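With this grant's support, we have settled on a layout for protein records. An illustrative entry appears below exactly as we store it:
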Amino acid sequence: MFLSLDGIDGTGKSTQLLLLADTLRGRGLSVTACVDPGGTDLGGKLREILLHGRQTTMSVRTECLLFMASRAELVNQVIAPALDRGEIVLSDRYLLANVVYQGHAGGLLPDDVWSLGQFATSGLRPDLTLVLDLPVDVAKSRRAGKADRLESRDDAYFERVRQGFLAEAARDPTRYHVVDATPNIELVHTTIATFVERYLRERNLLSG
């Protein structure tokens, strides 16, 4: 089973992924957690360029291709092997992020990004994606530390990102579930854990 968490920067998805991983392990499940971009030697180098290479200029198309290259390695080295072992994989972002950031918000055609992602991942998509949703101003106020290269973009860009996530989630409600990230960390975690545990029980992957 492959699940991902996504949403605009500042929604707390990285924190929620770690909490969810701990909860599922506590239920006796084998879990592999990963971050996209990153998770491999090459992916780590590409992550540094994409998120922290402030002096590196690149087109939106190039940016998208670098994300895809990192993801191709992540699928090959981490995600696919873990799935083959029968583990649950949790990914901090995945292909949807590029569809939204470089597609809806960046000007590329979302369908083109989906097609490119299909090639990069050999067609592997999450069974379920949790989209954490917050108004842009609230998400911005919650970001910790110095903004990275993408986080430094203006509010109008992030509003397009947010609306892109919601639009894609509405297209396929069987694959996407929007989570209100407004409450505190503990309440959001409870909401996510309850939903995911029910989702796994319905598929006979979790008892009780």
